[in-house]
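Hey, quick one: can you model this chain's 3D structure?
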Amino acid sequence: MSNTKYSWNSWKNHVNNCSDSYLHYQICIDSSILTGIENSNASYISSSISGENSNESGSFSTRTSTDDSDLTIRESSNDLDVTQKYRHLWVQCENCYGFNYKKFFKSKMNICERCECHLKMSSSDRIELFIDPGTWEPVDEDMTSLDPIEFNSEEEPYKDRIDSYQRKTGLTDAVQTGTCKLNGVPVAVGVMDFQFMGSSMGSVVGEKITRLIESATNQFLPLILVCASAGARMQEGSLSLMQMAKISSALYDYQSNKKLFYVPILTSPTTGGVTASFGMLGDIIIAEPDAYIAFAGKRVIEQTLNKTVPEGSQVAEYLFQKGLFDLIVPRNLLKGVLSELFQLHALF
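Sure thing. Here's the predicted structure for all 348 residues.
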C-alpha cells in the first residue's frame, strides 16, 4: 500500500472543473506524476467525490488532515484491473494533470483542452499535421541501426533494445525522412520521434538526415526538420557525436553554397547534440509553445556546476525573449506560417 499526497485545494478545484461525464469514470492517476517519486504504484480517484471530506469504502478510501491541507489517496488490491479497463479512454496532461478524451485528442493535435499545453506527438502524426494529404514519399525508411562499437550493458543488449523499440513504434529508427508537398510547394521533411529511444541521435539518424539534406540540395527543395531529442545515443559512443559535424557540413553546402531555405521546428524536448548542431542552424527557427529547449538538462547543469538553474529558463517563451529563435508557433497555425515563409523566400 502506498500513499500519495496531493494539495487539497488544487484537487478540489480540479474536480469542480471536470465535466459530469468525466466524473462517471474511475480514472487512474499515476502517482509518480503527482509526487515526482519514481516507481510509485498507480492510485485511483473515484468519481463520487463531491465534498471536501468525502470518503469511499470498498476499493477506494480517502483521508483528509485536520487543517484541510492535503488529501491522501490510498490504493487497493483490485485497482489494477480498473486501470486496465479505463486507461485507454483518456490521455493525462503532464502540465495540469487534466484528462483528455483520447477519441478526440488526435483531432485536437495533441493539445490539452484545459491548459492548451502542447503534448508529445508521434512522427507520423506530425507528418500528417502540415503536409498535403497523399503526398508523403518516404526515403531510406529501411535503414536500421546495428551495434557499431559492440556496446556491452548489464541490462538489455543494444541490438535487443533496438528490436524492442522497432516493434513498439513500427519505425526502424528515431527519425522519418521524405519528400512531400505543403500547400502545393514541394519540400523535404525530417521528423524525429521521441518514442524511439528518446529520439537519441545515432548513426542512422545522422545518416538519414544528411542524405535528406543532400537530396534537398540536389533537387533545390526547401527543408524542414522537426527536432525532438534527448541528445546523442550513448550506445554508439563517439560515432553518435560525429553526426553533429556531418549534418552541419551538409547544411553548410545547402545554405551557404546553394542559398536554399531551411526551417527547424523545435519541439519538447530538444536537447543535447541536436540543439547544438542542426537545431540552431536554421534560416528561420520556430519553436512550439512551452517547449523545453536546452543543450544540457537542468539536473546535469546543477550537478556539474553546483549552481541552481532558475525555473523556466529553459522554456521556449523565456528563450525567445533572449533571441534564441525567431518564432513561437502553435500547432494549429504551423502549416499556414510555413507556407507563408516559403512564399516569402521564393520572392527573393
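One thing worth noting: The chain has twelve helices and 14 strands.
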